[in-house]
Every structure is written in structure tokens, then in C-alpha cells.
Amino acid sequence: MTIRVIVADDQPLLRTGFKALIAAAPDLEVVGEAGDGREAVRLARAAQADVVLMDIRMPVLDGIAATRLITQDGDLAGVRVLILTTFEIDEYVFEALRAGASGFLGKSAEADELLNAIRTVSRGDALLSPVAIRSLIARFLATPSAPPPMDEAARRDLAALTDRERELTMLVATGLSNDEIAARLVLSPATVKTHVNRAMAKVGARDRAQLVVFAHRCGLAG
Of 43, 72, 161, 192, which is the most buried if we count CB atoms within 10 A? Predict the structure, then answer.
């Protein structure tokens, strides 16, 4: 099955480079390119995309706002957003994840990293390396506003989790993979995956990245 990709970046040269890389992969296809966030949202709807490579800093509508429009649209529930950023960790990345992005990738990444990143998020998995998560958490917790107030909906979602699901959510938020969690808790990776998936379903997380965001909101990532 071919993965349909939209490239959204305000720099034509970068778009051309990304398109060339993606076109060389037999399982990927570029179905549109956008120079601003509003066009990216329009194309996500019109081209029936699977993944949108989204730059953050764009004119008309920035990548964070565009991501939020895509992830909040019920008709685009299957569309994943992969944020492209100049720096792997910057002040906008957490906001992008809160807006519904499935992960992020530095623009300096190798070609194979980009292609694998597209495949990863298209499967519904989060593109959040342990190092990236730990750096993200460190920056987030260092801000005066962290952790954010937990609203009533988040309290209900947290209460709905079993003790095991809450424990695994905390471990996911520290950047551990399913295999690492399984080894730590002496469980099978399949059992861990089942619990994590149930936790995501209960809190309305689209993918693993959103589970990390939920953990922040509820103070489980301290």
C-alpha cells in the first residue's frame, strides 16, 4: 500500500529536495506540496493524504495552527502530521505535539531517517526517540507554566486508567520503548503494547505522542 504524502514548507528548494527523496521510495508518493499552512490543510482534505510533513514557521497559517485544524477535523482522522523543524528540540515542538502532531524530525536528518519517519507515523506510531522525549520533558518542566493545570476532562480520563495503565503511561512519558518497559516490569512486549493502546483509547490519544502530552497535563511526567 502506497503512503500518500504532502510536503508543507515555505522554502521551495527544501520542498523540491523532500519531494525527490520521497519519490525515490517505492512505497511513498507525494500527492501535493504547500507553501503555507492553510494550503497544507486544504491539500490534506483534497488529496486524501496519509502523512503531512509540516514545517512550523510558515506564512498565512503557521504549522502549529495548521496541525490543529487537521487533527481536530473528524474527516481527517487518518491523517498524521510529522513536524519538520530546524532544531530537534525548540520552543515550538511541544506546542506542535499538543496540537496533535505525531512526532517531529530535524531538517538535518538523513534521507533514510526521513523515509522511515514517514512510515512510522503513517502506522500510527509516534516518532519520539527516548533522547528527544527526555530533552523535551526537561525543557517543558523548566518553564514557569509547567505542568499546566489539569482540567476536568483530563481528571476523568486519568481516573479511567487502571493502575497498570497509569504506570505504563508514566513510563512511556519518560521515553522508554515498549521493549524497555517490558524488560523493566517483566512483561511481554505484546502485553505492554495492549495496555498502552488501551490507555490511549481511554484518554483519546491519537498515538503515542499524544499519550506523552496527556502525561504532562496530568503531572505523570515529572
Answer: 192
